[in-house]
């Protein structure tokens, strides 16, 4: 795992450099039409190769010998498909590192059923995996503009049928499954306007426009009816003023899309489009939480704020997250960060007050020995709101599973702060 972390950081640095370079000359009124965009997608039949099925399986057994811990709650999970398929905090990684697959109260590290350069997202509702066949490459906007957006393609693998389809052949900057598991929300580069547009993709070359002049920094509301996205002037040089801000798209279920601006002046609350730092919804407080900056943005238009930390620390003292979860039941923010020279890497749990204005407690899992950084890696929810699955790289001489990226999995209880060991099974 230690050898792959520098590779991850180099990849992320390249992505962020590509986002920062160049100057874009935006024209809000110049939008590519559906027909023009369609013509640019050269769709092909899937050429899916068969891959090996090497895997190792773990099943939970707590230290008291009681029943296995429950897998993350997914009441709408499609029968016969995994509850989760993930690369953990390796937000952008290739298929050769193996996938963590959670199903039927077990965890297995398995070879990927498809060869991918980027893993976009997995939906347990439909049992489908969204991925890209190759890693990011630079966009080629029209006019004298330096390529600015990292893009790739969009493929979908179905765990039920074992088949893969190409949905979009180019221009995809980000892709996330909608809550219904049938459509994919994608930010796609528009070469005519040199901007990102948000679209809903429902099949090969089947998509509809949701909003223009957007970003790859978006999040679905839990009820699936609202899509939030944030655009900052620091994301892209030359971003039009009217495009900058926090926006809500209503009518996502009915198809009657309406874009509404949330009156937020402090755009540093969402200062960058960084992997693993999309906003989280918290309905009880009617706000969005941005895990990279710890900014809390009320949706009623009242001023955003950052919570007060104990001991005089601040959000700036912690490295940027690569993977984050929001525990809406316990008001906890769980983040993983590769610490680098900061000595602050690992899995952190931040416990908020009910009004979100104070961090009442925070702690890091494990006993870091790697220059202050912890090698415990956040993987997934285990039981939503109660426990998380991690790969424990802090144990002495960890036994690699398929390769050095994955360490032995364990479950951490967010309620009583205890470990559950997952025993190896053939």
The largest sheet has its strands arranged as: 2-3-4-1-27-26-25-24
Can you tell me the residue ranges where pLDDT is under 50 for at least 5 consecutive residues?
1-58, 60-75
Please identify, by name, the CATH architecture: 7 Propeller
Extended strand count: 27
The residue fraction in helices comes out at under 10%
Strand content: 35-45%
CATH fold assignment: Methylamine Dehydrogenase, Chain H
Continuous helix count:
2
Q: Kindly report the average pLDDT value.
A: 78
Shape: globular
How many separate structural domains? 1
CATH class: Mainly Beta
The helix/strand order is HHEEEEEEEEEEEEEEEEEEEEEEEEEEE
Q: Termini, distance in Å?
A: 23 Å
Q: Which structural class fits the helix and strand makeup?
A: mainly beta
Summarize the structure.
This protein has two helices and 27 strands. It is mainly beta and 426 residues long.
Structure notes:
With 426 residues, this protein is mainly β. The protein has one domain (4-425): Methylamine Dehydrogenase, Chain H, CATH 2.130.10. The chain is 5% helix and 37% strand. The protein has two helices and 27 strands. It has helices at residues 4-20, 34-39; strands spanning 55-60, 84-86, 99-103, 106-110, 118-123, 128-132, 137-138, 150-158, 164-177, 184-190, 195-203, 206-211, 218-220, 227-231, 245-250, 258-262, 280-282, 287-290, 295-298, 323-327, 332-337, 346-352, 359-364, 376-383, 387-392, 409-413, 419-425. Strands 2-3-4-1-27-26-25-24 form an eight-stranded antiparallel beta sheet, with no helix packed on it. Strands 5, 6, 7, 8, 9, 10, 11 and 12 form an eight-stranded antiparallel beta sheet that branches. It has a four-stranded antiparallel beta sheet with strand order 13-14-15-16, with no helix packed on it. Strand 17 (280-282) and strand 18 form a beta hairpin. The longest helix is centred in the N-terminal third of the chain and has 17 residues, at 4-20. The radius of gyration is 21 Å and the shape is globular. The two termini are 23 Å apart.
